[in-house]
Amino acid sequence: MKLVKRYFAAGLVSVLAAMPVWAEAKPLAVGVEFNLTKLDPTNINDTLTMTSLRTVYQGLLGFDKDYKIIPLLAERYEASSDAKEFTFYLRKGVKFHDGTDFNAEAVKFNLDRLANPENKLSRRVLISMLDHVDIVDDYTVKIYLKEPYGALPSSLAHPGTMMISPAAIKKYGKDIDRHPVGTGPFKFKSWSGDIFEVTKNENYWGKVADVDGVVIRSVPESGARFAMLQAGELQFVPDFPSELVEVAKKIPTLDVTTAPSIYEFYTSMNVMKKPFDDIRVRKALNYAVNKEAFCKVVLNGYCEPATSSIPPLLRFYTNVGQYEYNPEKAKQLLADAGYANGFETEVFSRNSTAVIRAMQFLQQELAKVNVKVTVTPLEAGVEADRVWGAETPEKSDVQLLYSGWSASTGDADYGLRPLFASESFPPNLYNTSYYKNEKVDQALAEGIKTADDTKRAEAYKIVQQAVFEDAPWIFMGEKQNISVKTKKLSGVYMLPDGGFSVDGAKFTGE
Asked: Which stretch is the leader sequence (predicted)?
């Protein structure tokens, strides 16, 4: 069987070489708007927690700032021409933070654990096509798939497949989500609600960090995060509040960066609950919400109205159109569905300033068509429990859920399957609309059965068109990434998925 080799450019690896450190080493303080949820990367469904854990954990592959795949714990890989067999050649001399060797046995242990349905790990979808893993030698593994899947390298670059110390998993069991042990440039120190702290890994296999550690602090209120940045209590604020950008640009000690993202905002409607089981109601709510105004009011223009269920930067995106703003059409559809006088419902999400503003905007828009919406902001852990605590659709109390998703593989499969496949109902994955369409399920299955890009594109076009027509979401907007840092800090940046990297953080002269 012909092998297609994948070697990484030497320049990408050279950044790992040791360099002299001239700047003062001190902890880096990062300000974020939400709390972390739990610390097992294979069982997490929010970008913030996953990207924070990139400080501790690493995968076989990763992404650079332009979202190109780069080597991490694997130096290179080979793929068979039918995309069913992948051979990974591992980096030697790497140890987990607890002293356990990173080797082929550790890779097999991790992939077998993630793929085992009995473990009920939410990121299993990333390697659901896995058949088995063979150990070729101490530093070579061969991965066999049940069906062709050309996007496997993207899945293995996703933080949900990062490598955990097998010894730590055996020691802590399910409590591994409180005791992370990886191979990364930082070692876990503590996590207490709104503060996650890591310290420099002096024995790191690559370039040892220039900062002593990283403190990731949750500060939900936008103004408070900005004030702490100005006061020097924070040095980096990824996902900076859009309403404060113009003010930040005027402060000479700060750097503001904006860039396109692969993050899309939406409001899921539980199609198994009345009145959202009626497609006329779902379409009515789409016509009732002004997406242009959403981008201006909620994100201060750092946004574009959604034109599909995935954003344009994702591979295999198709522009399927928009529901134009038409309140009169919305009222007519509601009347046709038997809700001429509207109805009452609830939207819930997290409790940050930006999210509350988005839910209040939704509340005001829907009030114009006589839909009364109660806004319920929740702390991150409470919101997660409310979404994931329902083991069956019947037990879910989701009516409207304001949320967002970034497919951290860069591929349409992970932008669609976790959100619209019928197998992805919570607690398995994030189909919080409880949406089911056999045509969608079939097309999603076809999309991962082939390595042919033309066939994959057609499959995902079918999915995007069907989802737009069925409207299980109120399609909102695609945001721009905004980050602000102090000018004395370099080497930090946001990733297109809304995450961030601090591995290269360095403070320059005082």
From this structure: 1-23
Predicted pLDDT of residue 3 = 43
Helices (H), 222-377: 222-231, 245-249, 279-288, 291-299, 327-336, 353-367
Distance between CA atoms of 415 and 304, rounded to whole angstroms?
18
342 Rama sector, left if φ>0, alpha if ψ -120 to 50, beta otherwise: left
Buried-exposed string 42-58: b where 16+ CB fall within 10 A, e elsewhere: bbbbbbbbbbbbbbbbb
Strands 371-378 and 343-350: parallel
Residue 308: name the closest of 293, 326, 320 by CA.
Answer: 320
What's the confidence (pLDDT) of residue 7? Answer: 41
- Distance (Å, whole) CA 358 – CA 197: 30
Find the DSSP H helices in 81-172.
104-115, 152-157, 166-172
What lies within 8 Å, CB to CB, of 432 at 6+ separation is 268, 270, 387, 396, 398, 401, 403, 426
pLDDT, tens only, 153-163: 999 999 999 99
3-state class of 364 per DSSP?
Answer: helix
Distance from C-alpha of 99 to C-alpha of 97, rounded to nearest angstrom? 5
Residue 50, φ and ψ in degrees, nearest 5: -60, -45
What's the CATH architecture for 260-480? Roll (3.10)
Nearest to 204 by CA among 191, 195, 196, 213: 213
Return the pLDDT at 494.
95
| Token pair belonging to 362 | 């939704």
Secondary-structure class of domain 25-56+184-253+487-509 per CATH: alpha beta
Q: Tell me the fold of 57-167.
A: Dipeptide-binding Protein; domain 1 (3.90.76)
Place of tokens 């066939």: 455
Q: Which residues of the chain have pLDDT under 70?
A: 1-25, 509-510
CB atoms closer than 10 angstroms to residue 67: 17
The C-alpha angle 10, 16, 22, rounded to 5 degrees, equals 130
What does the domain layout of the chain look like in residue ranges? 25-56+184-253+487-509, 57-167, 260-480
Compute the chain's Rg from CA coordinates: 23
Unique residue bearing structure tokens 């839910």: 359
Q: With 0.85 as the threshold, say if the pTM is over it.
A: no
* H/E run at residue 441: helix 438-448
396 alpha carbon, distance to own chain's centre: 23
Assess whether the region 57-167 and the region 260-480 belong to the same CATH fold: no
